[in-house]
Design a protein that fits this description.
Layout lengths: L5 E4 L3 H12 L4 E5 L10 E4 L8 H4 E3 L2 E5 L5 E6 L3 H5 L4 E4 H11 L5 E3 L3 E7 L2 E6 L4 E4 L1 E4 L6 H12 L13 E5 L8 E5 L1 E2 L4 E2 L2 E3 L5 E2 L11 H17 L15
Parallel strand pairs: 1-2, 1-12, 2-8, 12-17
Antiparallel strand pairs: 3-7, 4-7, 5-6, 9-10, 10-11, 13-14, 15-18, 16-17
Length: 259
């Protein structure tokens, strides 16, 4: 039997990590990214709770501790990473976000990534799923993965459909709540918006959400400075890829009808 074809919306860390895993598992996939060609990322990721992918050690720097400051720029506490190898199986690494993204991007075949493709809507039924993009193109597959961030277009369309069908939990309705945090000197305009929401609905039908699209949490434990968002989306990608790699497409599932 054939493997199911996976359509991944979003070429961030989560989408590319999933693409790498699907490629190694010989699962057919396509990645769709709304940006045309350039990725502009800043920041670093601490990676220690997972064993980093091959090649990451060459671009990362070891980290034995992290001093955390509060909003008043006063030391709050220190996190000791020196025992990570013993208890977690891997040392703590500090990795540049652009470098990590570039590493993952280079491992995915170019023909599997479609740039400048903003997904506007999708349809799904018992036989498959179809996405529609802003350039009037459409693509068919068997599984749709929304890895397109906190303001996921896949999630928004999925929730719209579920709400129409009266299947959307009340907890998943409403705008994405957020808070503010100051990350630069106080004499500058420096506050950035941090969204925070863990949704109840992570999947429906042939559609599943990944990373910030379904759990955008910025509590003290998941402050962006801790890189927890990257670790969580990598965990998501590994779990999802493991499940997808065990699936097979029935021979009769060859015809899809969409309006």
């Amino acid at each position: 039997m054939d493997k199911p074809k996976v359509l991944v919306v979003g070429a961030g860390i989560g989408g590319l990590f999933l693409g790498n895993l699907l490629h190694k598992a010989k699962v057919p996939f396509l990645i769709f990214e709304r940006r045309c060609n350039e990725f502009e990322f800043i920041g670093v990721y601490p990676l220690g709770a997972v064993r980093p992918p091959r090649g990451v050690h060459k671009i990362g720097k070891s980290n034995i501790g992290l001093e955390v400051f509060n909003d008043e720029r006063k030391p709050a506490f220190v996190v000791d990473f020196s025992k990570r190898p013993r208890y977690c199986g891997a040392a703590e690494l500090i990795i540049s976000r652009p470098d990590l993204h570039d590493l993952l991007l280079r491992q995915v075949p170019k023909e599997n990534i479609h740039m400048g493709k903003k997904v506007l809507s999708f349809e799904q039924n018992d036989l498959g799923v179809m996405i529609r993009c802003n350039d009037n193109t459409s693509y068919h597959g068997d599984i749709l993965v929304g890895a397109d961030g906190a303001y996921s277009a896949v999630r928004q369309h999925l929730f719209k459909v579920l709400k129409t069908e009266k299947l959307l939990p009340a907890a998943d309705e409403g705008a994405l709540p957020f808070d503010w945090i100051c990350l630069t000197p106080k004499d500058r305009i420096c506050k950035v918006m941090l969204e925070e929401k863990v949704f109840t609905t992570w999947h429906s039908g042939r559609t599943v959400l990944l990373g910030d699209a379904c759990h955008k949490a910025m509590t003290v434990a998941l402050n962006p400075a801790g890189g927890a968002s990257a670790l969580l989306v990598i965990h998501d990608a590994v779990t999802l890829a493991n499940w997808i790699s065990t699936l097979h497409k029935p021979k009769h599932a060859t015809s899809r009808r969409f309006s």
